[in-house]
Amino acid sequence: MSSLSVAAPLPTVARQAPKQWGRLTLIGAAWSVFAFFLLLPLVIVLTEALQAGVGTFFSAIFEPDALAALRLTLLAVAISVPLNVLFGVAAAWCVSKYEFRGKSILVTLIDLPFSVSPVIAGLVYVLLFGAQGLFGEWLLEHDIQIIFAVPGIVLATLFVTVPFVARELIPLMQEQGTQEEEAARLLGASGWQMFWHVTVPNIRWGLIYGVVLCTARAMGEFGAVSVVSGHIRGLTNTLPLHVEILYNEYNHVAAFSVASLLLALALVILLLKQWSESRINRLRHSGAEE
Amino acid sequence: MSIRRFAFAALAGALFTTQALAADTLLNVSYDPTRELYQEFNSAFAQHWKAQGKGDVTIQQSHGGSGKQARSVIDGLRADVVTLALAGDIDELHRLGKLIPADWQSRLPDASTPYTSTIVFLVRKGNPKGLKDWGDLVKPGVEVITPNPKTSGGARWNFLAAWAWAKKQYGSDEKAQEYVTQLYKQVPVLDTGARGSTITFVNNRIGDVLLAWENEAFLALKEEGGDALEIVVPSLSILAEPPVAVVDRNVERKGTRELATAYLNHLYSEEGQRIAAKNFYRPRNAKVAAEFAEQFPQLELVTIDGAFNGWKEAQPKFFSDGGVFDQIYQAH
Amino acid sequence: MLRRTSPVIPGFGLTLGYTLCYLSFLVLIPLAALFVKTAELTWEQFVAITTSARVLAALKLSFATAFGAALLNGVIGTLLAWVLVRYRFPGRKLIDALIDLPFALPTAVAGIALTALYAPNGLIGQFASAVGLKIAYSPLGITLALTFVTLPFVVRTLQPVLADIPREVEEAASCLGAKPLQVFRHVLVPALLPAWLTGFALAFARGVGEYGSVIFIAGNMPGKTEILPLLIMVKLDQYDYAGATAIGVLMLVVAFILLLLINLLQRYIRTR
């Protein structure tokens, strides 16, 4: 499969010298780009957060409104991730195991929330469930509140995270083909047995990878959630919205403190991602060697 | 099975009930610069309510640009009371949402405005550009910070204050439009809300002068310590009247009319007026106003009704699509 | 109509049905609401809204900054992917892990961090303003913010392709007397181009719609630094639902076309 074989160095020394220079320049350039574009923003969040001391930092994080925002963010993650996992597996299954007409369109539709502006994602739910919206009157009569309440925030989060698990699984399952599943079936396994004992172990790491990406986006979504939130302190504020509110309250340090909490979560997510990715690579290599 | 059912019920409960449904919570949807005012007022009111033997009350706050907040309420944000930047935005609650009656403004004293404010200049310490009055703002090289009047209520007061001065100074609408056009040419950042503009001016140090609510300017001065900023009071400004209203349709649904009405009435009480004055809003109550007299500078103030025939005329003329503000921006 | 490659594998109806239902309820029906609302406008009104000076200016700005950011990513993304795949050096693992930071970091956090960096009194902004360059509150600031949030796209699409090109091919070419530039042009460019374009298009599509990171740094001046998603918000807050949805439909169509192109490109890569 993928050939990552390291070629033997070329024998000619004359060619080595300029190559060495080019190599060092490129590595240097990559480091500078990395430091400028990625490290600097990371460092600034931490320094701004800690500029008034550790005490202020922690009191901003453990303030009741911040904790309420954290709870809401985690709730949105806890609901949207499992639903999208279920969807991702089903979608990847039908896209990768079968050929059918309109598949390109289907894949494009799955991807769509990824490149639809988050503002539009929020807007559509306002159009549907707002008091002026299509179902507005009906919801009012039945006293169900969707937007400007938790369900709206969950829906907006679900919308923007739809593609993540499916997007990771589709190429993985396409690559794996259908032989193993077919073999299991021919040996008499039922559909579910085949799924749990053959497919799931095969896609496990890709699934984790998708979950990690999905979690990251669900946690950090701002635009879509902002449209449907109503910004009620302690009730419909997620962590990213809370950052904005603090920022708008002259509370620069608190804003960056909560931001660094989100940054810490992001780094944990990256760590998980790196770990699942290395497992995928290892599996793939061992597969290639067999 | 029972555990699963319990979990499901809990989840459904978390999803479909909001605390706002209970009778002892109140949602006040307000505009940007009132955060500090209502933080203080809410706890004072909660004590007052409890002292009357009415039990505990939780007051929830939502802040944002005035137009955005009005739109959210129209779209279904279940505010018990709205405390917005200008009457024009609350009018929309009647016009678009049928949430309140047309005569809402006559239900409370002083045209439903328990406190007022005005528009002043906030400049860098020492006033390095020598900005004394509206005319100085269009001098070459002066950068003016003000939010977008399309989305911010405060920005609309800014705009009308500038217009009122120019009309008095130069005598005609045409000249006033010329002046305001030049003024907005010197705006480098147009935030969507008053608070955003303050952050741009104070924290990010953009611009030479911020057109601000008087209360916002005082607050910025207080937050920043008075080392880098000072307030300049122009010769003429506008009496900014931020009104309040009970949202009838919502309080009826939630059964909170008594609470909501008491909340707004408390704004007119001596305690409420004093909290407003402490947060740099000009109180209506004569006694409290006398106490805080030296805090608020005297200047000539025009009113929206006197100079512009009220919001019903000013809003479409200046700020609707194709109105004066749009013409100014197309002229750019 | 259906061609099932493998008749023994069950679950086609179940999974396709579930996929379609889920997509319909969560994505398609809500998006349809956008079209329903826009249908209240006549075609003339729709054209008038979407071609008004302010919308066109926002359109131009959103597209130009997203294109600029995607292009910038095309260059630094290629550099990073190349270095990460081809060289072993100190810090390689760290860079590789942190490349995805922009995906994991909430965009609002990115927004306030970049504003703190690039504002005239910020860490970088003060040097820039000393030489008369304005970064925050200008299209340049928007481009840099978009470059940050879309940074991983080009790197992550190029990395696997680059890893799959056997080094022997390049070395064979250079043994045969090809100069490094020739190797680059005739061996690497054709192999990398489709993946590069995919990464570029993904970054572009995401950049056009990005909101959270940009509003803090943009300055939001109508006609100058007002991006399309913000214009939707502004229209909405003026109770102009039809105007907001008209712009929404425009953006949606652009997003759909871009994605279709990306998927076709990827199919081309796979079948090549």
From TrEMBL, chain A:
<comment type="function">
    <text>Part of the ABC transporter complex CysAWTP (TC 3.A.1.6.1) involved in sulfate/thiosulfate import. Probably responsible for the translocation of the substrate across the membrane.</text>
</comment>
<keyword id="KW-1003">Cell membrane</keyword>
<feature type="transmembrane region" description="Helical">
    <location>
        <begin position="105"/>
        <end position="126"/>
    </location>
</feature>
<dbReference type="InterPro" id="IPR000515">
    <property type="entry name" value="MetI-like"/>
</dbReference>
<keyword id="KW-0813">Transport</keyword>
<keyword id="KW-0812">Transmembrane</keyword>
<keyword id="KW-0997">Cell inner membrane</keyword>
<comment type="subunit">
    <text>The complex is composed of two ATP-binding proteins (CysA), two transmembrane proteins (CysT and CysW) and a solute-binding protein (CysP).</text>
</comment>
<feature type="transmembrane region" description="Helical">
    <location>
        <begin position="146"/>
        <end position="166"/>
    </location>
</feature>
<feature type="transmembrane region" description="Helical">
    <location>
        <begin position="66"/>
        <end position="93"/>
    </location>
</feature>
<dbReference type="GO" id="GO:0015419">
    <property type="term" value="F:ABC-type sulfate transporter activity"/>
</dbReference>
<keyword id="KW-1133">Transmembrane helix</keyword>
<dbReference type="InterPro" id="IPR035906">
    <property type="entry name" value="MetI-like_sf"/>
</dbReference>
<keyword id="KW-0472">Membrane</keyword>
<dbReference type="InterPro" id="IPR005667">
    <property type="entry name" value="Sulph_transpt2"/>
</dbReference>
From TrEMBL, chain B:
<protein>
    <submittedName>
        <fullName>Sulfate transport system substrate-binding protein</fullName>
    </submittedName>
</protein>
<dbReference type="GO" id="GO:0140104">
    <property type="term" value="F:molecular carrier activity"/>
</dbReference>
<dbReference type="InterPro" id="IPR005669">
    <property type="entry name" value="Thiosulph/SO4-bd"/>
</dbReference>
<keyword id="KW-0813">Transport</keyword>
<dbReference type="Pfam" id="PF13531">
    <property type="entry name" value="SBP_bac_11"/>
</dbReference>
<dbReference type="GO" id="GO:1902358">
    <property type="term" value="P:sulfate transmembrane transport"/>
</dbReference>
<dbReference type="GO" id="GO:1901681">
    <property type="term" value="F:sulfur compound binding"/>
</dbReference>
<keyword id="KW-0574">Periplasm</keyword>
<dbReference type="GO" id="GO:0042597">
    <property type="term" value="C:periplasmic space"/>
</dbReference>
<keyword id="KW-0732">Signal</keyword>
<feature type="signal peptide">
    <location>
        <begin position="1"/>
        <end position="22"/>
    </location>
</feature>
<dbReference type="InterPro" id="IPR034408">
    <property type="entry name" value="Sulphate/thiosulphate_BS"/>
</dbReference>
<comment type="similarity">
    <text>Belongs to the prokaryotic sulfate-binding protein family.</text>
</comment>
Automatic annotation (TrEMBL), chain C:
<feature type="transmembrane region" description="Helical">
    <location>
        <begin position="241"/>
        <end position="265"/>
    </location>
</feature>
<feature type="transmembrane region" description="Helical">
    <location>
        <begin position="135"/>
        <end position="155"/>
    </location>
</feature>
<dbReference type="GO" id="GO:0005886">
    <property type="term" value="C:plasma membrane"/>
</dbReference>
<protein>
    <recommendedName>
        <fullName>Sulfate transport system permease protein CysT</fullName>
    </recommendedName>
</protein>
<dbReference type="InterPro" id="IPR011865">
    <property type="entry name" value="CysT_permease"/>
</dbReference>
<comment type="subunit">
    <text>The complex is composed of two ATP-binding proteins (CysA), two transmembrane proteins (CysT and CysW) and a solute-binding protein (CysP).</text>
</comment>
<feature type="transmembrane region" description="Helical">
    <location>
        <begin position="12"/>
        <end position="36"/>
    </location>
</feature>
<dbReference type="InterPro" id="IPR005667">
    <property type="entry name" value="Sulph_transpt2"/>
</dbReference>
<keyword id="KW-1133">Transmembrane helix</keyword>
<keyword id="KW-0813">Transport</keyword>
<keyword id="KW-0812">Transmembrane</keyword>
<dbReference type="GO" id="GO:0015419">
    <property type="term" value="F:ABC-type sulfate transporter activity"/>
</dbReference>
<feature type="domain" description="ABC transmembrane type-1">
    <location>
        <begin position="59"/>
        <end position="262"/>
    </location>
</feature>
<comment type="function">
    <text>Part of the ABC transporter complex (TC 3.A.1.6.1) involved in sulfate/thiosulfate import.</text>
</comment>
<feature type="transmembrane region" description="Helical">
    <location>
        <begin position="187"/>
        <end position="205"/>
    </location>
</feature>
